[in-house]
Every structure is written in structure tokens, then in C-alpha cells.
Amino acid sequence: MAEDIEKAVARRRTFAIIAHPDAGKTTLTEKLLLFGGAIQLAGEVKAKKDKIQTRSDWMKIERERGISVVTSVMTFEYGDNVFNLLDTPGHEDFADDTYRTLSAVDSAVMVIDAAKGIEPRTLKLFEVCRLRDIPIITFVNKMDREARNTFEILDEIEEKLALDTAPITWPIGQGKTFSGTYHLAQNAVRRGDAEAERTAVHGPDSNRAAGLLPDNERPAFIEELELAREACRPFDLQAFREGHLTPVYFGSALRNFGVRDLIEALGDFGPAPRAQEADTRKVEATEEKMTSFVFKIQANMDPNHRDRIAFVRVCSGELKRGMKAKLVRTGKQMSLSAPQFFFARSRITADEAYAGDVVGIPNHGTLRIGDTLTEGEDILFRGVPNFAPEILRRVRLGDAMKAKKLKEALHQMAEEGVVQLFQPEDGSPAIVGVVGALQIDVLKERLSVEYTLPVDFEMARFSICRWIEADDKADLHRFIESHRGDIARDLDNDPVFLAQHEFSLNYEAERWKMIRFAAIKDYQ
Ligand code: G4P
Asked: Which of 22, 109, 125, 140 is the best mutation target for the ligand 1 pocket, counting ligand atoms within 8 Å of the beta carbon and taking the most?
């Protein structure tokens, strides 16, 4: 039976985990799924990740697409909430995929290694979240190992991220003596995740808190906790929701500490699906009519059928199996006959989905990244970004007879977001652009395996690519006319300026002040 839309929306929490490699994202993901009942045994997610350590392994796995597609989004329930955890690729060469995924979440969990603090990739991902005002919950992991002083960790978050912190729990001991978490406001202790409920205590000096520690550590813990209560900021829901403050939790994903605290935090004050900005208006999650957008495409799961799964984030209304939806880019109707939900290891047909849910829609190339689906309204969601590629290559094809096939294949890959494709105005061969070098390897491998197109890549004359815009169309036209050899068109036929190096870009930008050279373009 259809759930009431408002109730369904209020229950949902759609989030991603951001972390520097090795901080414990995989371990935490697994524990979240375990406590959410989505998997039976720890080790399943991890086993998958361990296979993907090397380049060639990664590509093999990519070919066995079934696995990665299933873990792209994981749904589990805990208490009254439905959680949709969107996975992001671990390798930074696939950063653009990560950024697109972050456009589909309402909050993020930032995992920090307690000994290492804020690491470079955490910082980068945090900045993307900040651009989108995504509220962040911090999980300081690996407290069972040698960790930094707790106050120091909080200070580092505040300084490096310019983000206020509010510790909600405090670690009881650390390293070998780490034995639980103390809830500062509730005065309650949870020794480990085996305890579903916290136990109320009289204070940090109680047996159930300080008593867990060896005698010599007790006084320091009691003092630290008193200090934390005086010196640390209290939690402020509004500041958190606006992205100015992060609640901080401590734990050990490996040893099952603090994971329940974190799930409860997501449930208690993690935001429900938020309103989404479209080109002409804001769409509220509780509106009756279905709207959604595509943020990820996984193609050729079955190479014989060239099928694709488009991952769609529902923004409002109810997406029902069998319904007709309008693909706004083309104006055409499409039938959503077999939408799917994903769990840790399996997928099932989705009969109905609500704002915040992510469903997979099988299609044969109808949908591309950034597409909006509605029940008829002509609106386009903004904010699935396209980043200017940092590596540009020309594709060299051994067999000239296959030029048309190559063109089609590249077009499909570009629609999936594997590469960006640029067609030079002067008619020279296409240029592909990627953000990370590994993407070129994946492209080469897929062209060979899926399309039997052995290709090579050669350096392009250019190293920088910028989308060009101007308020006055005539200015843009003049610029294009006078730079014909350096202009190409992207998949949407939007013009880009290709520069040999930073210097020539700056030179042109100086001379053509009416032209904007953009490094980021929203799809559509
Ligand atoms: P990632 O996805 O962020 O890259 O990290 P992952 O979960 O794979 O964890 C990286 C390493 O840190 C793993 O060890 C993992 O077991 C360990 N780890 C994760 N959480 C904790 C924790 O809370 N405490 C401790 N002590 N270790 C933790 P590894 O040696 O690389 O792998 P494994 O062979 O031990 O599984």
C-alpha cells in the first residue's frame, strides 16, 4: 500500500560517507548495514573492496558490473528510519563521480582517523559538501588505536575546515583502554554497539563511566569530561542544518563502538529529504507529483544487451512502478516499468519510491546524467555538475572503417559520464577529457572489451578546457569566430575554449573581458 507521502519523506535519510582512503569508510559502511540488518555478516563489503586494489582488478570488477552497481546505493532500516547510503568511488581519479553523487544526498558522514585528523581528501570532499550546504556529522574512528588528544582533534576540525564542532559523545579511554562512549547531554553511557540502549549514569565519575577505565586513567577522564562540558559548544540543530556546525561522535567501526550513536544521530537530526532547486522553482519533497533526476549511470551491465541503469534520486511525490514520466530534455514520455531498489547484495523491483530514495531505471540509452523526469511539468534540476577535464586526449583509431562505431561508443560513454567528449569546430578528430588518469584506462578497456574497438590515445595540443559564455550572444559569436581552431562543442553542443596552457587562457581572459571562462558547468 502506498505510504502517505509526508510520512514517507519524514522517515528518509539519504547520505554519503566522505573520508580519506584508509580512514575506515568501508568498515563503517559494513557496520551500518550490519546494524541496519541489511547484511548478516561483517566482511561482505570489505571483501568486495579488497578485490579492487589494483588497476587491472578495478577494471575487471568494472566489467563484472553487477557488483559495483549493487553497492552504489545501499538501503537499510533502523528504528523508524529508512536510510539510503550512496557509495562514492574510493579512488580520487573518479572524483567527478563522487561530486555528482554528493548532489543527490541530504547529509554526509565525515570519517576521520583519530590519529591522523583531517587529511587532504577529506578536506577536498568537505569543500564540495560546503558548496552545497550539505550538513555533516563527524565520526572520529579508530579510537581503539593510539589517538590524538580529543580536544586537539576538535580544534583541528574547527581550524582546518572553519567549521564549529559540538561533541555529542566523548570517548571513554582511548587505544587499548577505549571502552565506550559517554553522551554529554544525556549523561548516559554505551559500552559498545552490542548495547542497543544507553544506560543513564550520575556523572563521569560513576562506576559505569570512569569505572570502565584503569585506576590511573580515571581522574584524567573525569577532568576531561568536565572540561568538555564547560568548553565545548552545545549542539545547535539550525547551525548544523545550515552547514556551520558539525556534531562529533567517537568510536571504532572495527570494534563496534559508536556506530549505533552515529545511526541514531542520522535518524534524530539528520535532515529528511530537502527541497531541490530546479530552474524555475524550488521543489518541496512532500509535493504530490513525482520529480527526480539522474545523477549516475552504470552501463553495459549485460554487454550483450547494451543496457544501462540510470540512478535516479526522487525529489518529490511518488515514483510508482509502471508510471509514465516525462523526460524533460527531450519532451518525450517514458514508461518506468521496472524501477529497482538496491540492497547490500541484491536488487528488487521497486513498487514505490519517495523523495530521498534512489532507484535504478534500466534503459537502453534514453537517460543521461543530469536528466530530469517529471509527471509532466517542464522543470530542470540544477546542480549535477560537470567539471572541466584536467586531461585531454585525442583518440587514435587503428581501423578507419570503424570511425562511426567509435563515434557512437564515445557518445555513449560521455552520456554515462565516463569521459567528456569535445568535437572541435574545425572538424579535426574528437577530443576526450577526463578528470583522473585512471578514467582513460577504463575508457580504453571498455572500448576494447565492449565495443571491440582497439584505440590509442595521443596527447592533444591542449591542456585546458573552459566552457565559454557571455551575456551578449554577439560577443560569444565574435570570440568563437576569431578562435575557430581552439573551439570545440560538448555533448550538449555548448562551446568550450581549449587552451594550450594556463598562460594562453589568462591572456584571452584578459583581452575578452565580456567572456566568462567556466571550469564547472551544471548539466543541462
Ligand atoms: P577505507 O574504506 O576508508 O579505505 O578504510 P577501511 O574501512 O578499508 O579501513 C582501512 C583499515 O583500517 C583496515 O585495515 C581496517 O580494518 C582498519 N580499520 C577501520 N576501522 C578501524 C577501527 O575502528 N579501528 C582499527 N584499529 N582499525 C580500523 P587494513 O589493515 O587495511 O585491512 P584489514 O586487513 O585489517 O581488514
From this structure: 22
